[in-house]
Design goal:
alpha/beta; eight-stranded mixed beta sheet; five-stranded parallel beta sheet
Length: 357
Amino acid sequence: MERVMGNCLQCVLFDLEAAWEQEKSDFRKSLMQEGIFCASLSETDIPLVKKNSGTVILTDSPETGAKLAREGIVYFGCCHSMNARIDQKSAAEATDADTVSCWFDGAALVLESFEEVDARFLEEWMLRAKGQPVMIASTGRLMLREMSDEDIPELERIGRECAEKEAYEEIRYVGENICEEKELYVHGNRFTKEYLYSYRRTAYRLQGFGLWSVLYQDRVIGCCGFEPWDERLGTAESAAPRIVPGKRKVDTIQSPEGMLPDRTDISTEQTLAWTDNIILYHLSFRETFNVASGSILEMQYMLEAAYHRQGFGTEMCRAALAYAKERLEADEVRLRIWESNRASRALAEKLGFAPEL
């Protein structure tokens, strides 16, 4: 996939011990082929780095990392398994008590190797460390990028529109809890400002992906993206509804996020409800795929009603799926769609998803 973020990353400085020498040499060559300047870090570089927002530092020294963090400099920690030893014991002599995780205070990310790391990878995590949204893809009309704080009021408004249109007030999420008032649930997420601000600050840095804002002519018109597929769906450990043949039964399930109102005065018998059946769809990227070990993502999307039936949904989803295949290296993507949502089901099949029977 073509890089769409522009030349944000310009320089990579290395502060690594001899154990990294071969990997560093190969990695430097690949970065330089992508037009990134590479050099070794010296003390005199730090004041210059502070002035150059396009520079990142790779170090295997937690002490150096802590110093860089105090200076507000973006850096990546580098930690081979043997570099985590408290002393210089050999692997045969070391015990569990001698091995600790290298704690790199304030690091953008900690790398165990440079395998599958490229300039775009460093660039994305550099931007996340600075709290700046990462550009995901650009199509003929649309731009997909991580949410910014400025997007959130519009996303909440669109989420409210979707919740009202799809009659989410008929759903009862329970576990000695019940939502009597209409809640803004879109694909199981509560689209309130509080939720979205928290999501924007945590999801991308925890996972490296998530739901992304979709912009048309610099205006937010929806969101599209992925969450890890949860095999626990429908169990007591999950906040999602239980799926049963023919109908979807919302049973006694507790929300681990604690986002639902506390209603202990309503009995279990009063909280059971029936709604449309959920149909599962899947799209495989690999010819051979092992569910037990493969990478499965759940795709989620919403689009403002004013932009329906203009090809925007297809365009944004195809761009997101290309990113999932090429950058996230997903093996399979899945969808959960209400049986009554014919438009969403038609879009899924147009994208190549097949229903699971």
